[in-house]
Amino acid sequence: MVTAPARVLLGLRDAAVPPGEELPSQCVASKLGGSPDWRLSVPAIHPSCEVCRAGLLHVVQIYCPLEDSQYHRVINVFACATKRCWGNSESWKVLRSQYLQVPKNEMQDYKRKQEQEWTRAATDWCSGADDWGEAPPELCGTSNSFPRETQCAALLQRMSLGGKDTGAFGDVTREEQTKPSGCAQEFQPYYISVVEEEDYLCWEDLGDAQRLLKEYQQREEVDLDRLMSASCTPDGSGEKYEKSEAGKRNQTFYKFMKRISSCQEQILRYSWNGQPLFITHLPEDFQARVPPCKNCKSRRIFEFQLMPALVNMLKTRKNADTSIEFGTAVVYTCEKSCWTAGCSSPLEEFIFVQEDPDQRLFK
Predict the structure, then answer these.
(1) How far apart are the C-alpha atoms of 28 and 22, rounded to whole Å?
(2) Which residues does 6 contact at the CB level (< 8 Å), separation at least 6?
(3) Smallest Cα–Cα separation from 317: which of 183, 186, 190?
């Protein structure tokens, strides 16, 4: 029996998050930069680098609920901006948070009460309009006022990597949204929108993809076809092993670039239990080196990876020199997505970072 390939979703940078803007309390956005939208009872979670002990910067937040699960699910990725820590997996941190959905009947009661409160508030406001002069019509009507639920539903549909409307969140206090004090800087925040990779790969005309790949080779002054041919040429000079290893590296990099050439602006690839794209060759036993879940001891599976296009989008407002360099950062999570009801702290998952092949030239 042939198993169908796992669905692949691509994350693209969307609109900037305006300074000081707060999402409705029912929503959580997939975004890059900014600060995490913690929903657990421990608000000031701020991990530090295991290498240099500096505070890690928030890189991405992914809202990724699983089908047939009673939990909302969010994954936050952090990284160290210290230059000597670039490309070091120990200088990154992945935290998974989950919390129960609000049952439908409870949510309907909640919405009904909210609507009653909004209507009452609008009526009270309009009842005093004569005292303040003629009020604008939009303040007195209730039919188009408070479009909060509609905006939230649309936002979740656009941001959710799960591809499924999973309902609304409960209220979150202001204290739970407080930014961690341990990090003075943060990357400028942008929303993340989601597209199907299949929509790009199924183009009848792949001329644009080939053009982009050619532009990349010219910009980087790399002839991938020549390198691949040279690495595979038989040679009796005793360098067969070295050339074989070089061939594997070049082949892996070529495969990586060819796959993303149809959508070079992708900043992440999401494929639950799918296959990651590596930028350099891995040892044969790499999968065995991925540690099991610390919480339930189940194996970890690939969930998503961060892509090179994200590097140039991680900019801070305070210090233009603050940045993070990497080739790809691959995230593995518990296959059971284990969680204990009432847990107040996120669970740590595993991340493996590969450097950009050219990055070593700048160290």
Answers:
(1) 10
(2) 271, 272, 273, 274, 275
(3) 186
Q: pLDDT band at 37, cuts 50/70/90?
A: confident
Coil, helix or strand at residue 92 = strand
Q: CA 354 to CA 278: how far, in whole Å?
A: 8
**Residue 10, pLDDT above cutoff 80:** yes
Tokens 């140039």: give the residue.
312
Q: Alpha-carbon distance 89 to 35, whole Å? A: 21
Measured distance CA(136)–CA(257) in Å, rounded: 56
DSSP classification of residue 279: S
pTM: 0.69
- Span 1-5, average pLDDT: 58
Query: Which pair of tokens denotes residue 137?
Result: 């019509």
Query: Among residues 65, 75, 97, 89, which one has the least CA distance to residue 31?
Result: 75
Q: Are 312 and 38 in contact (CB under 8 A)?
A: no
Write down the pLDDT at residue 106: 55
161: pLDDT strictly greater than 90: no
Asked whether 307 and 13 are in contact (CB, 8 A), the reply is no
**Contact predicate 293/338, CB 8 Å:** yes
* Residue that wins the pLDDT comparison between 178 and 226: 226
Give the position of tokens 């609008």.
122
Three-class secondary structure of residue 331 per DSSP? strand
In sequence order, what E strands does the chain have? 9-16, 31-32, 57-63, 71-79, 92-100, 190-196, 268-270, 300-306, 328-334, 347-354
Q: What is the pLDDT of residue 159?
A: 45
